Amino acid sequence: MGSKVKLFFPFSLVMLIGLILPVIVMVIAGFQGMDGGFTLSNYTTIFTQNYYRMAIFNSLWISLIAGIIGLVISILGAWAITRLAERTQNILIILFNLAASFAGIPLAFSLIIVFGNAGIAKALAHALHIGFLGNFSIYSLQGLILAYTFFEVPLGILFLYAPMKEIKKEWFEAAVVLGANRSFFIKTIILPILLPNIIETFIILFANAMGTYETMYALTGNNFISIPIVIGSLIDGSLNANVPLACALATIFAAVMAILVLVGNRIINRKRK
């Protein structure tokens, strides 16, 4: 008993100081005005002014699109990796571990070098007369989705690789012997096994995209508003800073993620039963 207390006490202390207390302070501050008094004006402002509603919509929309695209590519990528030699798989997993951490300013700078107005892709497009490539802008919504995909896909592959590797070729051979075709095998055997992992991976990708700040800010500045961008502008220390309003937005962000996790867990538990 004593050893368990010694083991979990430091972890509980870190959770309390690093997560629980900040969340409590954030929620309380969201109901305070600039003078420190209780008010609902922060939430009234968020849900009545188009600027803040657009920030919420943009965050949800780009996270949904980037999450779906990243999930689809991750499923195909993880499946393809499991078909390679063991040594090649290990090398690729190491590379994907590195790529999953390659986000923020470094990723944005790399994409600007390739797809920026004076980037490599633009030069090739003009030289080879490739219209769609020349018209593509990394500073647009499509560019943001491309940027998000760059760090969503490696992360998704890392989460899906392990469960996909557990699928044995012998399962399909046995199904064929029993008269099943490939589509029936995928629908009745593979999908039920992988669906909980797919849902969990999508939730992680969605949350990862929702919380992205540096990449979006480096590519678009304040031209494309989202919840992280607005929160950043509200706590930048300028004369227009409004920390209680930023806390209210952050609370809404946390509530969206909590609802998504609860719904996802409910679906997963049903499927596993």
Automatic annotation (TrEMBL):
Q: Which domain of life is it from?
A: Bacteria
Sorted alphabetically, the keyword list is: Cell membrane, Membrane, Transmembrane, Transmembrane helix, Transport
A GO biological process of this protein is:
transmembrane transport
User: In what residue span(s) does the ABC transmembrane type-1 domain sit?
Assistant: 56-264
Annotated transmembrane regions:
7-31, 51-79, 91-114, 145-164, 184-209, 241-263
CDD domains for the chain:
TM_PBP2
The subcellular localization recorded is:
Cell membrane
Topology versus the membrane, per the UniProt entry?
Answer: Multi-pass membrane protein
Alphabetical list of SUPFAM superfamilies matching this protein: MetI-like (SSF161098)
Q: Which Pfam families match?
A: BPD_transp_1 (PF00528)
Entry's Gene Ontology cellular component terms: plasma membrane
* Family affiliation: Belongs to the binding-protein-dependent transport system permease family. CysTW subfamily.
| PANTHER family the record matches | INNER MEMBRANE ABC TRANSPORTER PERMEASE PROTEIN YDCU-RELATED, INNER MEMBRANE ABC TRANSPORTER PERMEASE PROTEIN YDCU-RELATED-RELATED
Q: What is this protein called?
A: ABC transporter permease subunit
Q: Which organism is it from?
A: Periweissella fabalis
